[in-house]
Amino acid sequence: MFTLVQSTDIKGAGGETLPSPFKSLSRLEVEFRRGEFSLLAAGPGTGKSLIAANLALLGGMPVLYFSADSSAATQISRAAAIITGDDVKDVKAALLANDASAYEKELAARWWVRMNFSARPTPTEMELDLLAFLEVNGTSPHLICVDNITNVDYGNAGDAESYTFGLEALCDYLSQMARSTNAHVLGMHHVTGEHSNGTSPIPLSGVKGKTTRVPSLIMTAHAENDGMGGRIINMSPVKYREGFADPSGRTFASFRLNSRNLRFEELDGAEFDSII
After folding, report:
1. Which of 131, 198, 245, 257 has the fewest CB atoms within 10 Å, i.e. the most exposed one?
2. Pfam family of this protein, just one (predicted)?
3. What 3-state DSSP class applies to 47?
């Protein structure tokens, strides 16, 4: 039990805002704060993993990324393209030829980003990785990405009801992880069937399962064509304890996805820059 003054001393890094390249989100007062748990929900192939990758790779901060949904080959080609700005097709061709020499220096410079590619990570495995991260780097991660939360092995789910309540318990667990590590924990998640095409705004009610109670921030994402053969990704804050939210999903920040290097661009044409 602490007084209000004592509470200011023990909060540590909790509440600090992570560096983020998503300027238009900032204009909606959306921030990724340490010590908090958030969800990013979207339909398959919308780009939620790319959103997380851009935040992780361009933010210049210690990151632990649980990539249960994507293989090492996929993630490393995306990472090299995002970091260097090179065409992802050229990156993939070089990696298939076992020639990553052109990218090793840039990739090595992001030594503070650590990946786990287990397809079904357990809480025990995640905790061991957190301890190893602290031992190796001398600090806990500032950002923990869980891509995606349905891949975490949080016990047997014998039926739909136990599966749903298992997701709610997992969200409680990830929220506690954020509190105990002072990291921002960002979980990727699915949406309900009627929103799975990902082409129209997704409301809070479109987030799948009993997962909306715990997160301090929930964003949904949908895509649209930009009329030039590219895609625009719209991110909607549908729940946010610290600021603005529109549960309908119809208020969003929009970004053009550069399909060549997988970076996002503000609609005024300004490409994101690395913060480091």
Report:
1. 131
2. AAA_25
3. coil
